[in-house]
Amino acid sequence: MVMKKVTNFISGSIFLPSVRLVVGRLIRPIVKWYPVDILKCLLPQTCESIKNILNKTDISQINNLNGDLELNWYLILFAELVQARGDTLLIYQENIKSVFHRCIRILHKDSYQATASAIKSLLLSLLNIYSIGRWLTRENEDDSFANFLPIRAWGQNVDFDRIQVQYHIPSDEEIDFACDFVNTFIYPELTLLKENFENISIDERRRSLVIIHSIVSGCFRIVPRMESKEIQDLTLTLVPYKLESHSLYSAYCKQSNSKFRENIRMRLLLDMGELLDMLIENQSGDVVSIKYALNIYALSSRYYGTSSYDISQMRTNVQSTRKLFRNEIIGERDNPSCLVMNQIEIQIEAFESNNYRTLTEIDKQIELKLFDLSINRYSEVRRYAQSELFYFFFLYYYSWEIIVDRVADLLNSSKDTDDNEIKGCLHILNGDSSFFLLTKNSWTIMKKLWPSIVRRSPMKKLSVQRLIQDIKKKIETQFVTIALVDEINQAAVQAASTLWRPLESNEIQIGDVPIPSACIDTCLGFLIHDNIELRKHAVKAIAAFCRLQKLPLTYVEKSLDEIFHGTDRSTTTSIQSRSQPGNRDDNLWLTYNDYKAPETQTEWEQICFLDKIFHGYYQWPKTIKYALNKRERYTSGKIPAHVSIILDRFLDKDFVTKLSKCIIFDEGNINFDKIRFLMYKGLFRNFGLAFVDNFIEQVYILVREQTREKYEGSHRAAAEIVAGMIRGSKYWTLTMLEELWQKLTPLLTEVTNNLNNETYFHWGSCFRYCLNDTDPRRMFQPINFISTLINCETVGNTFNEASRWYLVQSLGVLQWRIPSIWYLIYERAEELLDHPSKLMRERIATILSISFGFDRTFFNGKSVRHPNIHQFMNMMREKLRQAIEIYETKPLFNHSGSNVELDFEARQALNLIETVIEFHLNLFDRCNEPIKEIIVQLFPYLCEIESIGTNDDTFRKRLTFARTRIGMAYLDVNLLETLIQQLEYVCTTRKWHARRSAIEFVQNLVFCNLFNVRCYAKRLHQLVYKCLCDEQLEVRLIVSKTLSGFYQCGYLTVTEDDLKHFLEMSNTNYFTEIDGKKVISTKDIVRRHSGILGLCAIALASPYDISSHVPEVLMVLCKHSHDPELIQKSIKECFSEFRRTHYDSWHEHRAKFTDDQLEMLGDVLVSHSYYT
Fold it and tell me: Domain for residue 823, yes or no?
């Protein structure tokens, strides 16, 4: 029945190009499953239609720009029909051949492309081996639909042992038909291209190449390989890849070669090679013809009916289908028959694609031809040839060895070499996504090509220079360092062969191989090189050298009792043996809490410093392993030669001066460079104070730079040096630290006094990097310096003050280990909440949110060391209440004649309000703990602020977002109870802005906490009903949307009581008599409007279907369409939204309405045709 309907739909129809693809896909499965019936019904009729069109229409009209629309459609239909199983096409041989004889010379592009598609489909159907009979099930397939619906078998599991796959194997008759077809049509096209090259048009040439390409793609599966001598010993390998080891596909075993006039591969190879030469010499602008000829030329060597691209596409389709059948809950997937058969086909195609991967002499000549075209002077020719060459390399193992010498010769040739040849070679070396020559595991390639690229680096053309840079980056990314072994003798080989067991620890000896001094000296020279890429690599190298040269630390292991021994903590501190995160008595000693640095070096060295932030936070291990706070440093007395090179170079003031000038400039954005920071850190760690003076002198010069182009880069460079100094001094002695900070303090003071928008970020990175992963007690000097910035006031430069607070913010990396500092910050920030500068207020809000993020509640109670958020929020609520009252009673601007004065107290109140909003938002971003109850208690004020009439859209958006964050947070039962109480309170306030905000928030609350808030459905239902009768229109409209959302998501259900209640309200009489006159009662019109809005909420709660209540509700709304304007507008908006959401499926939805109801809808709406 389905096939009959489809054939009736297609017969006699002509489809536009936009729908042909859809109709073709509709025909294709029927052709595959029922080829006999569909061919009998459509193929003769289609062939006859094509012949009739060609007989009636002049050929010049068919070949013109527009072509013949009807002919193109029948050719596309014909191409779909010949995809049927090969044996079913044999009885239509004459019809099929006659169509091709008439159509193969048509020059219109759409027509000859459809003809080519039909040729390829026909040959694939005749010659391919493919599965047939892909039924969903073999049971009940002949039963009627009343007993068995095939759709019920879709996606069912199949038993691998019972799948019974059937294949189409080409018969002798099919191969004869295909060979006769190829002989008939390919040779005239080859003759045309060879003998009439100068006489034929470009369109004729392109048509001929497209036809040849389609024949090649369809028949090469049975055309044997060209006989040629195999190339031996292409590369050294222990497992030779010989032709004798290949398995041959059964289709190749048929003696099809004698059925062709000659080996078509060889004929195409010769003809296409000559054609390519003539095209490039005489018709270089015909890129399309060159592309097709090049592809046919390459296919003659590498194509045997399938390609890796086809297999990759099949795998992608199978993998996407697998996901559809996977049960994510139990982690298993079904195996339907279609999926299993697709997987079998992939294995067959993959097996076939692995044949013939050995290189012969003919293949070698093809590769050299492709290489010559890859370095051609025409860019399009190069691009297409390189694509074919890369696939050639992928297919034939080690075939790239043939061109290595030629590439090296071209790259090493004189400067007069054609730039196009150089660019072509570089593109070949750069490869594509599947092939990259330079990282192949070959010493020959590295020896010949890597130095050639380096020598070619200084090129005049920017495009060539960029190409070389891309190659270098690709090598850095993909090259895997090869292990180097100095000597391997025969005895070592024999020992390695017999030794087949894990090595003991005492058998493993790791020797330190010293770095050559020349290598270090070269990298040091590159630090001040003009080339920025060389400088970047030199920085990485010096950082690595410093890390390799660092002297070892001395580690000790102690228990916590031993660490406490000799201190007052040994008797007063109890050690927790179980995991108990947070503040405890036994981890107080790790914090910077009234910490005083020791006075002697001995005490300083014996302190147990633990740098990682997690140490002691959860639980103490039985023993603690830590490094003694001392480290040996290199001195000028005893120092290895490879270390002295670095020391001598940085002791040279001229070298440091040149270095500081070079590092100012960076490509692109000027960002703090972590690699340079690590280099400086290693230098000062290894050599101590040796060259601090040299760098301090340059840092002063950098921070005092006034040239606009160098200003930001100079400060970034200075910040990197200072960060390296501070972090490198981690294990210095107290005397050395004191000397360092005597020099750094005035420098940093000068820097902080002159911070601006270009420099503050770099100095913030400086302190963040030098403090990260360090014990705060060890870093007491930088912490003390940052602490001085907290109470430092700047008059007239608020940006500088905000920048200094950004430096204070870098203390966040120390987290819970600086409670006294967080208290100091809290006390100072509390005074700046209403600061006049917006930037300053944002900075205060950020740093307060960081400090309160450590006030966490654990199972053992609350944090007692950090600033308490409850205390702060209670204070803020009182201040916020006062600020709202001030702002509402005093205007922000006072107008006195032509003068406008800003009210200071009102402005201060608004500043505080803005700070509270910023703090609230930042707290959700930076706090790792779920929302606290004290934050929920701030909600009424966030609603009340909505009534503040500012013209700042950003302020309003952030206020809305602040309320939304509460709804988005995870809320347990206790918090939900508190929040709903707050909502009920807000909905009774006199400010309608607050009431509207609260109802709007309810939607977010329910949608984000749908499971937890289920038990409060009755209370929220009552709250929404109450607000639906609000005297303010804006509140009622929001309530209607909220109620509709509740109905739609299933949080509330439309009941008969709801419907009855809204109908009763909508029928409220809004007229009343006053002094004998009828007037509209405001109270009654609000009640009537509330009922209408409730009905609108029901109607809009079903945007994609029609629930049982909707027809009745819409009829009631139609009756009220002539009510006062307020009600009319709401009904009009409801119908407009209803029409928008039901437009696409109205032909189905209208069945839910009676004819009278449809007529009433048509009378109400403007566009009557929509409902009729």
Answer: no
- Dump pLDDT digits (tens) for 853-862: 888 777 665 5
- pLDDT, tens digit, for every residue of 986-1020? 998 888 989 999 999 998 899 888 888 888 889 99
Distance CA 39, CA 135 (A): 20
Q: Is the pTM of this model over 0.90?
A: no
Residue 293 lies in a domain: yes
**pLDDT, tens digit, for every residue of 753-795?**
888 888 999 999 999 999 998 989 888 899 999 988 887 765 5
The reply to whether 843 falls in a domain is: no
Tokens of 801: 């003050």
User: Do 300 and 429 sit in the same domain of this protein?
Assistant: yes
Q: Which residue has the tokens 């966490």?
A: 856
pLDDT tens digits for range 434-461: 788 888 877 788 888 888 888 776 666 7
Residue for token pair 């030669």: 641
- By CB atoms closer than 10 A (0-12, 13-18, 19+), residue 731 is buried
Q: With bands split at pLDDT 50, 70 and 90, how would you rate the model's confidence at 703?
A: very high
Report the domain count for the chain. Answer: 2
Give the pairing type, strands 1077-1080 and 1071-1074: antiparallel
Which of the 8 DSSP states describes residue 437? G
Q: Say if CB 419 and CB 464 are below 8 A apart.
A: yes
pLDDT given at position 675? 92
Between CA 594 and CA 588 the distance in angstroms is 11
pLDDT at 1050 > cutoff 50: yes
Neighbour-count burial for 851-878, b at 16+ CB within 10 Å, e otherwise: bbbbbbeeeeeebebbbbbeebbeebbe
The DSSP string of 148-173 is --GGGGTT----GGG---EEE---HH
**Tokens 């950004």, residue located:** 806
Dump the DSSP string for 931-961.
Answer: PPHHHHTTHHHHHHGGGS----HHHHHHHHH
In this structure, the answer to whether residues 279 and 164 fall within a common structural domain is no
The residue among 443, 478, 513 that closes a domain is 478
In the 8-state DSSP scheme, what is residue 508? -
- Do both 134 and 280 map to the same domain? no
Q: Which of 426, 445, 478 is the last residue of a domain?
A: 478
Phi-psi region of 344 (alpha: psi -120 to 50; beta: other; left: phi over 0): alpha
Whole-number pLDDT of residue 676: 93
User: Are 423 and 287 contained in the same domain?
Assistant: yes
Please determine, for residue 97, whether its predicted confidence score (pLDDT) is greater than 60: yes
Query: In which domain, by residue range, is 84 found?
Result: 1-139+157-169
**CA distance linking residue 760 with residue 804, whole number of Å:** 8
Is-contact 910 892, C-beta < 8 A?
Answer: yes
User: How does DSSP assign 569-626, residue by residue?
Assistant: HHHH-PPP-S---S--GGGGGGS-SS----SSHHHHHHS----STTTTTS---SSEEE
The 3-state DSSP class for residue 1078 equals strand
| Whether the predicted pLDDT of 1164 surpasses 50 | yes
- Tokens matching residue 158: 């199949």
Under a CB-based contact definition with an 8 Å cutoff, are residues 659 and 528 in contact?
A: yes
pLDDT at 601 over 90: no
Question: Is position 847 within any domain?
Answer: no
83 SS3 class? coil
Statement: residue 280 has pLDDT above 80 = yes
Share of the chain above pLDDT 90, in %: 16
The pLDDT value recorded for residue 156 is 67
The upper half-sphere exposure of residue 911, i.e. CA atoms within 13 Å in the direction of its Cβ, equals 18
Spatial separation of the C-alpha atoms in residues 314 and 543, rounded to whole Å = 48
312 and 430 belong to one structural domain: yes
Axis-axis angle for helices 1017-1028, 973-986 (nearest 10): 10
Residues 133 and 279 occupy one common structural domain: no
CA distance 831 to 819: 19
